[in-house]
Write a structure and sequence with these properties.
The chain has helices at about 5-25, 30-55, 60-75, 80-100, 105-120, 145-155; strands spanning about 130-135, 155-165, 170-180. The protein is an alpha+beta fold and about 180 residues long. The termini are far apart.
Length: about 180
C-alpha cells in the first residue's frame, strides 16, 4: 500500500471521527447508528479503494454498488431525516476517501460535507421549531378548529398540519403537526 493511499485513508478516518465523534455523538448519541455510520464509511472506503485500483472495473459498477448499499440500508429500518443525512455523509466521505484524485480537492469536499452537517444539524438552528404526530381523542374534520385545538394543547403557534387519520367511528384524529414554541 502506497503512502498516497494511506494519506487518503487517514483523511477519511479524520473526517469520520469528526462526523461521528464531534457532530453525531454529542447531538444524538444512538450507538447503533454510530456503528452503522462507521461500518458503512469504512466499507465504502475499502470497496472504493479496491475499485479505483482495478483496471477491469468501471466507474458504473462502483456507482451501482453505491446505490445498492444505499437502498439496502435505508430499507432495513426507519430513519429520521437527520439520520439519513448522517448516513449519506458517511457514504460520501468513504467514496471521497477512496477516489484518488487531488488530495486538496478531496479534503475540501470532505470539509464541505462536515461543515454543512455542522450547520444544518446545529441545535441553535430553528431551535424553537418542532414537529410531531398527535392523536386527539375526538374527530375534528374542520382544519381551523383542528389548528386551534392543537395550539391550545401544545401552547405553540401551529405552522402546518397534515391530517393522517380521521376516525369518525372511534372519534379520533391523528395529525402530524409542525409548530413553533413561544
Amino acid at each position: 500500500m502506497s503512502l498516497t493511499t494511506l494519506t487518503y485513508i487517514a483523511a477519511d478516518l479524520v473526517a469520520l471521527a469528526v462526523l461521528v465523534g464531534a457532530l453525531y455523538a454529542p447531538r444524538h448519541s444512538r450507538k447503533d447508528l454510530m456503528a452503522a455510520y462507521i461500518g458503512v464509511n469504512v466499507g465504502v472506503l475499502a470497496v472504493t479503494l479496491l475499485l479505483s485500483t482495478s483496471d477491469n472495473v468501471g466507474a458504473g459498477l462502483g456507482l451501482g454498488l453505491f446505490g445498492v448499499l444505499s437502498i439496502i440500508r435505508l430499507r432495513s429500518s426507519s430513519l429520521a431525516q437527520g439520520e439519513v443525512a448522517y448516513f449519506f455523509a458517511a457514504l460520501a466521505l468513504g467514496l471521497l476517501g477512496g477516489i484518488k484524485t487531488h488530495l486538496i480537492i478531496v479534503a475540501i469536499l470532505m470539509a464541505l460535507i462536515l461543515a454543512s452537517l455542522w450547520v444544518g444539524d446545529h441545535p441553535a438552528l430553528m431551535r424553537r421549531n418542532r414537529n410531531q404526530t398527535v392523536t386527539l381523542d375526538r374527530a375534528i374534520s374542520n382544519e381551523s378548529e383542528l389548528i386551534t385545538e392543537l395550539e391550545n394543547l401544545l401552547g405553540a403557534q401551529v405552522r402546518s398540519v397534515d391530517l393522517k387519520s380521521l376516525d369518525l367511528v372511534n372519534d379520533t384524529t391523528i395529525v402530524e403537526v409542525h409548530y413553533r414554541m413561544s
